[in-house]
Every structure is written in structure tokens, then in C-alpha cells.
Write a structure and sequence with these properties.
Family (chain A): Belongs to the binding-protein-dependent transport system permease family.
Keywords (chain A): Cell membrane, Membrane, Transmembrane, Transmembrane helix, Transport
Distance between the termini of chain B: 42 Å
Mean pLDDT of chain A: 85
Pfam family, one (chain A): BPD_transp_1
Largest sheet of chain A: none
Helix content of chain A: over 70%
Shape of chain A: globular
Radius of gyration of chain B: 18 Å
Bound molecules: adenosine-5'-triphosphate, magnesium ion
Protein name (chain A): ABC transporter permease
Low-confidence stretches of chain B: 1-17
Oligomer: heterodimer
Membrane topology (chain A): Multi-pass membrane protein
CATH topology of the domain at 2-9 and 20-97 and 173-270 in chain B: Rossmann fold
CATH class of the domain at 2-9 and 20-97 and 173-270 in chain B: Alpha Beta
Number of strands of chain A: 0
Structural class of chain B: alpha/beta
Mean pLDDT of chain B: 84
Order of helices and strands of chain A: HHHHHHHHHHH
Largest sheet of chain B: 6 strands, mixed
Number of domains of chain A: 2
Radius of gyration of chain A: 23 Å
Strand content of chain A: under 5%
């Protein structure tokens, strides 16, 4: 991912006369990412060739051109099913991470709480999410709730682990400094522990951004008549392969979009380098 | 230099000149629980006169940091007593009587230089009637005017340590506790900061307790040198350095300076 965040700085030499901003940005993007763009284009071309050369039937694997047409033909359906999945993933992301962060704070200040609940968190984490989904659907029904819970659960554990580590990451010297200044526990938390944990938190949030979409889709498979997950099931059973592929592309696009939103916020929030001491 | 002028207003009365800034009596410090106890300091007694600059030498692991941290109320005293300006260390800490400079600059990496210097003014329930300095002035005092907005990772090691010193000065402490503050710096930067520290000390009259590994640094800076020996840590020597003030770096090439360092080196070998 570092390629995406830092690559654009490398940009190739531009002609001296000023171009308009958008064109320049597009050129710059292409200039710095052309290996990736060429590779992706190559893969798609190869896919098209294989489907054509071996005369693969459309229901088995559609060609890229057919998938592209599916976008146009099913635009309204895709859009209508994208929104619920986005909402579930987003709310799951918010609640899952919020609870993980609050729990991490509690763990850091109470080792009893950590000893009591960390094992439970590990056990819940080790139940395959696909096995948990039917249970939650049975309890909470077919509504949006089980989807949010599953999307949240999938975010929860990495954030809990990272946040606990992050809140403990403040160096002993920094804590000594705060003690010499007779700082209160609240001041130590807000001014040292929390900022020091942010790089750890964002590392987890970036994982959570993509996995929350996965959680929502898995939940929609089990019991839902709407959302990208339901659309995937429906398209599969009706052999509408182009639609299936288009849905998968949209789902991946949604995950990537959320990832970049989190990365963008991270780049705004964290402007420092953690190891500034040496 | 405005900051210095104001800092000089601290009363320096002749009668007080001999009072102790830090008084350590029969101090024992032990680490670890029962059974696996380790004695870091044993029966240490020393009086640091107010306004003095005392450098502390001793073999690695002899307890220099431990003694300094005990004065700063950062480690638990097992036996004996410490009094800082006539109070227990905890009271002195809460009253902002001392500031601590660590070996590493220990800046908060997400705060700009100026915000790091201002940190002591933001935290702790300190008495608002206590004198404080302007962070801006303190940064200028350590030669970092114009770098206020820089983040720690944008500064060199020497600059970061200067920010740490500015931060220590912002509360106008009467005592500065410095644990190898220049240990990680190159010799040129270190020489420069040594001279600046001496100037600061003479201008402000602050009591300074300064731990170092370098004998020349200890002699150049020290009005007194306190030497600890190890296993267990005890006072080996507390001696006055008979070199006139103000000192320039060239004093290190004088016969007298070399005589003193040679004597300390011989003592250190016995430890
Ligand atoms: N928190 C601690 N717990 C256990 N032992 C400790 C602790 N802090 C220091 N010690 C021990 O106390 C002794 C003195 O340590 P200290 O850090 O004071 O030495 P020092 O003279 O500052 O050494 P150096 O010159 O290497 O910095 C060492 O043997 C060390 O292992
Ligand atoms: Mg030490």
C-alpha cells in the first residue's frame, strides 16, 4: 500500500507550461502507478482472451466485456443493494471499533478486567464468523441488526489487540516525565497514552475497514433479501454470472474505498514519526 | 535573553548560600521483593548546597540514576531520608521545585517544539502564583528561535535535547536534575551545550545535579564532583573543583584541569 500513498510524490518530469489541475493529477497518477495499471490491464486482457479462446460459456465465467455490460444493465439493482451493505459495514465498523477501544482503555487501567475478559474475546474471535452468523440471525431475525453485529465483531478483535498494545506503548521515560510534572491520570491518558496509541489504532482501523465489508456480506448470505451479499447468492443461483462478477467488483470497490477513507484520515491525524527519539 | 534577566530575580542571600538544596541522609534503596532483594544504594549521605552545580560520576550501574530519581520522587526510598529545599521529594515535586532532564530528550513526538516546551504549564495542579516563563523565550534561550513549529522528528538530536532543556526551564525550577542529558550527542554539540549550561547556571543561580559518564565533562561543569562506587552504591568522594568561574572550553587544556581529571580517573579505577 505504501506504493499508493507515497508513489505520487515521485512523479516524472512535467513539461514546463502549466496544465490544468485535473489533467495534471491524472497524468501524475498514471506516471507513478503505470506498472500497476499495466499489470491490471494485462490481466483483464488475458481473461478476455482465455474466455474467447476456450469458448467458455457465459454462465461459467463471463468475459470482462460482459461484466462491463452487466454494470450498465443492472446499475439500479447494484446501487440499491450497495447502500444497505455500506450502511451495515459502516455501522459495524463504528460500533465494533468503539467497543474495542473502550474495552482496551478499561483493560489498560484494570488488569483484573483484562485477565477476566481477554480470554473471552479470544474465544469469540476463534469461532468462525460464518458459523456465528446463523446463530445471530436466529436471535436477531432478518433485519439489519445481525449484519451490523457481524461486521462489528469482525472489526472488534484486531482493534482491541492493537489498542491495548498502543495504550501501553508510551515509553516509560514519557510516563516518568508526566510524573515529575505531577500530571493526573486523566492528563497522562489524554496527552500521552492516547496520542501514542494512534498509529496502532489506525493500523487496526485499516484492516477493519475492509473486513467490515466482508462481515456485512457474509451476514447477508445467511439471511437477507437485500444487500450485495444477497445479490451474490441470487445471481449465483440464477446463473447470472456477469451480474455476480459485477457485484463482486462493487464489493471489492467498497472495501477499497473505505480503506482509502481511513488512510486519508490517518494521514491527516498522524503527522509525526513515532521514533523521534533517535 | 529576557528570560534570563527575569530568572535572576530569585533571591540569593548570603545566609542562604550555604543552605542545602538537596539533603540526603543515610539513604538506602533496594529493588525487588523479599528474597531477591538488590541493594542499589547503601547508606548514601550528601548535602548539595543551594546554587551549586554538582556533577555525579561513577561506574556504570553504581546507582547514579537511582539517586537522581530518588530525589525526583521517581523511585521508592527504602531507608533514610531525602529533603529537597526542606521538604520531602513528593512535596517538592508537586510544588515544581525541580525539573528533570532525561538522557533521551523524551519529547512528545506529536507536539511541536513550542508545545513540548509548554507541556509543564498545561499539566499538573500547580500553584498558579508560581513564576513561569514564556515557552517562546525559553526556546530562544536555548538557541531555537524560529523552530517553534518544528516537530521533534524534524529536529536534530542536539536540538531535541535543547527543547528538553527549555521545557525543564519553563517552570523556573530552583533545582535542575539532569541524567546524562548530553550522553547521546556528538562531542562538538556536547561542548557547545556544556558552555551554554554553565552560562545558564551562572545567570540563573539554579542548583544543578548533573550525572555524566565523562570525567572531563564532570570537571569542566562541576563546582563539586560527587563520585559513587558500586556494589553497593555508596559515596566514594565529594570534592570541590578548584577551577575559577566563568570557565571557557580552553580550561580543559590547563595543567590544573588535567591534574584533577587524572585524580578522578585514579579514584574511579578503585571503584
Ligand atoms: N527499577 C529497577 N528494578 C530493579 N533494579 C534496578 C531498577 N533500577 C535500577 N536498578 C538497578 O540498580 C542499579 C543502579 O542502577 P542505575 O540505573 O542507578 O545505575 P547508573 O549508575 O545510572 O548506571 P549508568 O551509568 O549505566 O546509567 C543497577 O544495578 C540496576 O540494575
Ligand atoms: Mg544511569
Amino acid at each position: 500500500m505504501t506504493d499508493f500513498t507515497h508513489g505520487s510524490k515521485q512523479g516524472v518530469a512535467m513539461p514546463l507550461e502549466k496544465r490544468n489541475g485535473v489533467a495534471e493529477a491524472v497524468m501524475g497518477f498514471f506516471a507513478s502507478h503505470y506498472p500497476a495499471i499495466l499489470a491490471v490491464t494485462g490481466c483483464i486482457a488475458l481473461w478476455q482472451f482465455v474466455v474467447w479462446f476456450f469458448a467458455v460459456p457465459t454462465f461459467m465465467a463471463p468475459s470482462p466485456v460482459e461484466v462491463f455490460h452487466a454494470f450498465g444493465e443492472n446499475g439500479a439493482i447494484l446501487w440499491a443493494n450497495l447502500l444497505p451493505t455500506l450502511l451495515e459495514a459502516f455501522l459495524g465498523f463504528i460500533f465494533g471499533n468503539l467497543i474495542a477501544i473502550l474495552l482496551a482503555v478499561w483493560f489498560v487501567y484494570s488488569s483484573t478486567a483484562e485477565k477476566a475478559f481477554y480470554p473471552i474475546a479470544v474465544i469469540v474471535k476463534s469461532i468462525p464468523i460464518i458459523a456465528l452468523a446463523p446463530i445471530l440471525v436466529l436471535i436477531f431475525g432478518n433485519g439489519i441488526a445481525p449484519k451490523i453485529i457481524i461486521a462489528g465483531l469482525i472489526c472488534f478483535f484486531p482493534t482491541l489487540v492493537n489498542m491495548v498494545q498502543g495504550l501501553k506503548a508510551a515509553s516509560p521515560a514519557m510516563l516518568d516525565l508526566m510524573r515529575v510534572l505531577s500530571a493526573s491520570n486523566a492528563e497522562v491518558f489524554w496527552k500521552v497514552r492516547l496520542p501514542a496509541s494512534l498509529p496502532f489504532l489506525f493500523a487496526a482501523l485499516k484492516i477493519a475497514a475492509t473486513s467490515s465489508v466482508m462481515g456485512a456480506i457474509v451476514a447477508e448470505w445467511i439471511g437477507s433479501s437485500y444487500g450485495l451479499g444477497a445479490l451474490i447468492i441470487e445471481a449465483t443461483y440464477n446463473f447470472r454470472s456477469p451480474l455476480l462478477y459485477a457485484t463482486v467488483v462493487i464489493a471489492a470497490g467498497l472495501a477499497v474505498a473505505l480503506f482509502f477513507v481511513v488512510s486519508f484520515i490517518e494521514s491527516r491525524v498522524i503527522r509525526w514519526k513515532p521514533d523521534a527519539q533517535h | 535573553m529576557l528570560g534570563v534577566a527575569r530568572m535572576m530575580q530569585q533571591p540569593v542571600q548570603p545566609a542562604e548560600a550555604t543552605r542545602s538544596a538537596v539533603s540526603v541522609k543515610n539513604l538506602d534503596i533496594r529493588f525487588g521483593g523479599k528474597g531477591a532483594e538488590f541493594t542499589a544504594l547503601s547508606d548514601v549521605s550528601v548535602e548539595i548546597p543551594e546554587g551549586a552545580l554538582v556533577t555525579m560520576l561513577g561506574p556504570s550501574g553504581c546507582g547514579k540514576s537511582t539517586l537522581l530519581r530518588a530525589v525526583a520522587d521517581l523511585v521508592h526510598v527504602s531507608d533514610g531520608s531525602i529533603s529537597v529545599l526542606g521538604q520531602p521529594p513528593k512535596k517538592a515535586r508537586e510544588g515544581r521545585d525541580f525539573a528533570f532532564v532525561f538522557q533521551e530528550a523524551t519529547l512528545l513526538p506529536w507536539r511541536s517544539a513550542i508545545d513540548n516546551v509548554g507541556l509543564p504549564l498545561e499539566v499538573g495542579k500547580h500553584d498558579s502564583s508560581l513564576p513561569t516563563a514564556d515557552p517562546q523565550e525559553m526556546l530562544a534561550l536555548v538557541g531555537l528561535k524560529g523552530r517553534e513549529k518544528a516537530l521533534p522528528h524534524e529536529l536534530s538530536g542536539g536540538m531535541r535535547q535543547r527543547v528538553a532543556i527549555a521545557r525543564a526551564l519553563v517552570t523556573r525550577p530552583r533545582i535542575l536534575l539532569m541524567d546524562e542529558p548530553f550522553g547521546a550527542l556528538d562531542e562538538i554539540t556536547r561542548d557547545k551545550l556544556n558552555e551554554e549550561l554553565l552560562r545558564l547556571w551562572q545567570e540563573t543561580g539554579t542548583t544543578i545535579l548533573f550525572v555524566t559518564h565523562s570525567i572531563p565533562e564532570a570537571v569542566f561543569l562541576g563546582e563539586y564532583v560527587l563520585m559513587l562506587e558500586s556494589l553497593p552504591g555508596r559515596v566514594k568522594e565529594f570534592m570541590k573543583v578548584d577551577l575559577p568561574h566563568p570557565r571557557k572550553l580552553a580550561v580543559r587544556d590547563t595543567v590544573e584541569f588535567i591534574r584533577i581529571t587524572a585524580k578522578l580517573r585514579a579514584l574511579l579505577e578503585e571503584c
